[in-house]
């Protein structure tokens, strides 16, 4: 049987460590920007679908 190392939860699959760490070099996008971009892409898709 393999030994458990680090004392992390087995079921979390490393996600706890990933979300707990803050990387200041990472790109931060606000949720509002993501929603606006999704809306713009949806409108463009609908317009292109109607034209072609």
From TrEMBL:
Per the record, GO CC terms? plasma membrane
Q: Does the keyword Protein transport apply?
A: yes
The source's superkingdom equals: Archaea
Q: Name one GO biological process term.
A: protein transport
Main location per the UniProt record? membrane
What's the source species' lineage? Archaea, Methanobacteriati, Methanobacteriota, Stenosarchaea group, Methanomicrobia
One Pfam annotation, family name? Sec61_beta
Function comment: Involved in protein export. The function of the beta subunit is unknown, but it may be involved in stabilization of the trimeric complex.
Q: What is this protein called?
A: Preprotein translocase subunit SecG
> Partners and quaternary state?
Component of the protein translocase complex. Heterotrimer consisting of alpha (SecY), beta (SecG) and gamma (SecE) subunits. Can form oligomers of the heterotrimer.
Q: Which residues lie on this side of the membrane: Cytoplasmic?
A: 1-30
Question: Which UniProt keywords are listed?
Answer: Cell membrane, Membrane, Protein transport, Translocation, Transmembrane, Transmembrane helix, Transport
Its placement in the membrane is given as: Single-pass membrane protein
Q: Where, per UniProt, does this protein localize?
A: Cell membrane
Tell me the name of the encoding gene: secG
**Which NCBIfam families does the entry link to?**
PRK01253.1
Bilayer-crossing residues are 34-51
Q: Which InterPro entries match?
A: Preprot_translocase_SecG, SecG/Sec61-beta/Sbh
Q: Which family does it belong to?
A: Belongs to the SEC61-beta family.
């Amino acid at each position: 049987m393999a030994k458990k190392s680090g004392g992390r939860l087995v079921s979390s699959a490393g996600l706890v460590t990933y979300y707990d760490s803050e990387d200041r070099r990472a790109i931060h996008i606000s949720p509002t920007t993501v929603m606006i971009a999704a809306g713009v892409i949806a409108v463009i898709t609908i317009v292109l679908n109607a034209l072609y």
